[in-house]
Amino acid sequence: MFKKLLIANRGEIACRVIKTARKMGIATVAVYSDADRNALHVRMADEAVHIGAPPASESYIVIDKIMQAIKDTGAEAVHPGYGFLSENMKFAQALEEAGVAFVGPPANAIEAMGDKITSKKIAQEAGVSTVPGYMGLIEDAEEAVRISNEIGYPVMIKASAGGGGKGMRIAWTDAETREGFQASKNEAKSSFGDDRIFIEKFVTQPRHIEIQVLADAHGNCVYLGERECSIQRRNQKVIEEAPSPFLDEATRKAMGEQACALAQAVGYTSAGTVEFIVDGERNFYFLEMNTRLQVEHPVTELITGVDLVEQMIRVAAGETLPFAQDDIKLTGWAMESRLYAEDPYRNFLPSIGRLTRYRPPQEVAAGPLLQTGKWQGEAPSGETAVRNDTGVFEGGEISMYYDPMIAKLCTWAPDRAGSIEAMRVALDSFEVEGIGHNLPFLSAVMDHDRFVSGNITTAFIAEEYPEGFEGATLGADALRRVAAAAAAMHRVAEIRRTRVSGRMDNHERRVGADWVVTLQGEEFPVSIAADHDGSTVSFEDGHAMRVASDWTPGDQLAQLTVEGAPLVLKVGKLPGGFRIRTRGADLKVHVRSPRQAELARLMPEKLPPDTSKLLLCPMPGLIVKIDVAEGDEVQEGQALCTVEAMKMENILRAERKGIVTRINAGPGDSLAVDEVIMEFE
Fold first, then answer.
1. Average pLDDT over the chain, rounded to an integer
2. Which of 375, 406, 474, 662 is the most buried (most CB within 10 A)?
3. Are 222 and 177 in contact (CB under 8 A)?
4. 500: pLDDT confidence band, cut at 50, 70 and 90?
């Protein structure tokens, strides 16, 4: 076995690989750019080597710099993680020539399957069902339009060397094809150094389901079930689960066998993923093969008990897989929520800055175990697991140079409903402050009836949130639970306040029993009766709720029990109440005496400032292009400018008809959130 492993990556995946290497007794080497000098993966590794400036093109994807780090540290093997050089054939060849093991597939397999155009041709030759499309290289936007019309709209414009949703656009018209073609080329060149583009038919109402394969160099290949990855935004996966709520055993077996056959046809070794589009009749079509570890691999590990990173390392060391296909069993259900540094209230645009607070939920180990190829019993009913793969820490910076993913929060339970409920509690318990993040959106999805039912497609977010995400609205039952909790918490805070003031000896007697809780536009007059074990909160209609908690004023996380069920609240201070965040809702909760509530109803509502005549920069970013000039008349939906952030180009469009009166920024300018780009009359 190797004695020293270099991880040619950063962030959470570098930390993930380091954990397994440490478990195996293998020393680790991290590489880092200027922006990552104090990063978590650098702190965790046994050694760390500086490799250049923040842009990946000057550090993480410069093969010569990685090779020099290998030489300087004497690393015997390299794990590439995902992204960066993970599917770079030249990198794999350079390692082979240097006598260094690549923890991944052979260079020829990367060449054959890593390129979407080549892999699709191979799949067609192997008799695999594929999506109709044009596999040749496309020279310009007009050729893209001609091809799109031949295939038939809608079409998917994709970067040949793409991944992670970058360099991908859906086009429904000629105009969208022209615009999407150039944007995809730009993103592909920026992210992968390869601007080749191809086009294929976009299958409507699709489900994105992928098969995890694992192969060794001795002719053995197994599939480890599937992952459902249909909850996507801008072609980027947001929530994944394993297994899929849609597949039956016959389809799973057919897809798995086909995935293994495809992998073996190109001499594949290591872990890899074969992605399929599956329609409503369970017909499946080969999409692409990712010749690397996937971001969402933890959900497969949770339902199989297989450490995929460990098996990748062992395969690279020449070992034989320790299990056969019959040994692989799928136990329970796993969910993964990707926590991103992006603002869901601003159409999910990237957010950067310092993590002033970062407190993940406590990790809990549970689930299946697979040892030496044999199963060691079933998981007990009701057992759940929580896992958080991350590459950040409290006080650290979220950089504009890299992918905005902060963490991957995973839960496991014996069934899907249990896994979803465990995820709800884990998301509510996850504290992140200082930047915009998508925790509220993830919570809202977990409570969405359509998601809970399993009736999902890749269009879920676009269909269910067509106007973007504006926060969740709690249902009547949930609202009452929060109102009861807030009343009980307010009573505790009032008792503490009277004690601090020193005005009375019998503090509890000075705190009234009758209050009015106002939240989400509703009022709940309540009466509180407290004892040593908690409080009973009674509503006007006679319904009473029992609230128990050890929350103390000042705690930013309240873990309560309401009517015997857990309720987790993120708590902030407000005059006369709290800011409470739970289940995707962000609530201003006021707890007032009946007289205070009566007076509050007479107060005028404060209106937000009018920004309708301004184009504000929605994220920290770089102005790439200005599409209009002062004095131009613009129409609704017209492109005004392009802002680049975290390697993604974002086209800002006019919300209504108007005339441009002033342009305050130009190409090359770096802007902060809400800086004025242009003004209208």
1. 91
2. 406
3. no
4. low
Domain match, 507 and 537 both: yes
Last-in-domain residue among 435, 464, 493: 464
Q: Which residue has the tokens 């009022």?
A: 523
Residue 478, pLDDT > 60, answer yes
Contacts of 97 (CB under 8 A, 6+ apart): none
Q: Domain range spanning residue 92?
A: 4-103
- Phi and psi at residue 245, to the nearest 5°: -75, -5
Given a cut of 50, is residue 377 above it in pLDDT? no
**Rounded CA separation 68/66 (Å):** 5
Specify the length of the chain in residues.
681
Final residue of a domain: which of 438, 464, 490?
Answer: 464
Phi, psi of 4 (to 5 degrees): -140, 130
**What is the 3 state secondary structure string of 584-598?**
CEEEEEEEECHHHHH
Signed CA dihedral, 162, 163, 166, 170: sign only: positive
Backbone angles phi, psi at 225, to 5 degrees: 75, -170
Question: Could you give phi then psi for residue 354, rounded to 5 degrees?
Answer: -95, 140
Give per-residue pLDDT as tens, 190-246.
777 888 888 988 877 789 999 999 999 999 999 999 999 999 987 889 999 999 999
148 pLDDT above the threshold of 60: yes
Q: Please state, in angstroms and rounded to a whole number, the distance separating the CA atoms of residues 418 and 551.
A: 26
Catalytic positions: 288
- Both 310 and 405 in one domain: the answer is yes
What is the C-alpha separation between 56 and 59, in angstroms, rounded? 5
Cβ atoms within 10 Å of 444's Cβ, excluding its own = 23
